[in-house]
């Protein structure tokens, strides 16, 4: 297992290298650059802009720029954000806790609901309860998050006033106090529910279908022939088999945990990674954009590795070596 | 109903009376097991033979109450085990009997074990279901059971997973699981069909040993008459959900009466005959939906069919002592005057 993990980690290096080349080139191929929209041509000397471009190396060929960037990057210098005027890693670290908090809350909501609903539906398929769950799930799947987000704000913030509509914390509370954390939790709930509820569909239906499929297997008949109770058959025999495919999702979830939800964060003006990523693209904030991309790539590869290792743990038929 | 006289006079262990098990197709019920009655005495080995689709497996699943839910059900009749009717039992009551008093082994050893649990876990489960013992004792007992069914290195195998074992070994594990609580009745549904010929012989030998050591009755479902000759005391021949002939194993082989049984016998390849072509019975068992409602169900394939076979339903009746047949060639099978033609 250790050898396998090590080999997989080593195999990530060339992959990350290729990803960095492609993403860097694509970012640079976008029309304009970070100076384009920022400096008002009416009162800034175009010659000065041109000077700055030359100084930042934007006029060099892309491969030279890439080489300069990757040399710094592997040495731990992620570059300075052209918009926030601070190092890229600092601005990312500032946003990261917010995003992890939001994604973790929504992920817990998704998992709890999907497990409960999936197990229920799988055990009692084609009943009223199952159909209701399926209908609710498909509505959730069909609703785009920007629609759900806007409606959630309209209903629960403006009309009912249960939740704040934006931000990550009330500015009037002091950091570190109990009220501070309560306020953060209060702020995260609404976007977390929007995210969490919209994601349950695929998990629930996946689990349901797998339970139904497994309940027709021969080993279930064997368990019945042994006098095993129906609830143990579902909760132990079938569940252990049906949870295996869900492990694939777990790999993606690790990425989502830090990748943030671009649209939901933007709608709730929640200062997270998703929002930062979007602004870094529109502002051509290359150093932030590249650092984030590399972070997502590492985590995607890492998530897949974790999923593969977990496969080996939950399914004895898969052996890693 | 006449009883077989050659068998011991003891009270039957299992008594199936007028059992009808039906499948639901397009909201209509079609009997896959049609008015079947038979008995199994303690320590008796009863073989049930017939082609694929003749209702053997459905009959055995009915006894275990393991019919696929929603699409099949027992419509009428009773299954008395030790005098109690299994048909009327609740799920909990039947769970106390399954695995303990009646156990079953299946045709497909490759898929009959749960792939994600160890052999030990699956063996211990049946012990823990029915006995008041600790997990440690159960583990010890399952190692003994594995040893008892001829598995070498049982202390290693107990921690292995099904995919690490061969088909024959898995079937041995299934047998170990079935006999764990020393059941009074073992239902073996084609236990050797999926195995190599050499392994088949070993498994049958093992079943025989266990049967005599444990004083266990066996219902052996098979389409292999060789297996029947090897194992059984009594034989029931089924066709299209009905019993067509029933007698002891010697009588069946030396003096088969029903044309279907005779044809089945003819399909056995013989060592001393030099034949190019293997005999077969023309046609197939009619599907549930196309089953004739009256008359003999075998009439369409029967070489001795008479015109009346298509509208007079033969009754299963004793033609000779201890030999029951349902065929209009025999006077006893004709419905009695005044009786409704079923």
TrEMBL record, chain A:
Gene Ontology BP terms: transmembrane transport
Q: Name one GO cellular component term.
A: plasma membrane
- Give the UniProt subcellular location, in the record's own words: Cell membrane
Q: Does the keyword Membrane apply?
A: yes
What keywords tag this UniProt record?
A: Cell membrane, Membrane, Transmembrane, Transmembrane helix, Transport
Task: State the superkingdom.
Answer: Bacteria
Mode of membrane association: Multi-pass membrane protein
Q: What is its main location?
A: membrane
Domain named ABC transmembrane type-1 is located at 96-307
Q: Where are the transmembrane segments?
A: 9-27, 100-120, 132-156, 188-207, 243-268, 288-314
Q: Which family does it belong to?
A: Belongs to the binding-protein-dependent transport system permease family.
Q: What is this protein called?
A: Oligopeptide transport system permease protein AppB
To which species is this protein native?
Caldibacillus thermoamylovorans
UniProtKB/TrEMBL annotation, chain B:
Q: What is this protein called?
A: Oligopeptide transport ATP-binding protein AppD
User: Where does it localize?
Assistant: Cell membrane
Q: Taxonomy-wise, where does this protein's organism fall, top ranks first? A: Bacteria, Bacillati, Bacillota, Bacilli, Bacillales
List residues of the ABC transporter domain. Answer: 17-265
Per the record, the GO terms for biological process are: peptide transport
Q: Name one GO molecular function term.
A: ATP binding
Q: Which domain of life is it from?
A: Bacteria
What organism is the protein native to? Answer: Caldibacillus thermoamylovorans
By sequence similarity, the record places it as follows: Belongs to the ABC transporter superfamily.
Q: Which PANTHER family match?
A: DIPEPTIDE TRANSPORT ATP-BINDING PROTEIN DPPD, OLIGOPEPTIDE TRANSPORT ATP-BINDING PROTEIN APPD
What does the record say about its membrane topology? Peripheral membrane protein
- PROSITE patterns for the chain: ABC_TRANSPORTER_1, ABC_TRANSPORTER_2
Q: What is its main location?
A: membrane
SMART domains found in the cross-reference section: AAA
What Pfam families does the annotation carry? ABC_tran, oligo_HPY
- Cellular component GO terms held in the UniProt record: plasma membrane
Give a yes or no for keyword ATP-binding in this entry.
yes
Which keywords annotate this record?
Answer: ATP-binding, Cell membrane, Membrane, Nucleotide-binding, Transport
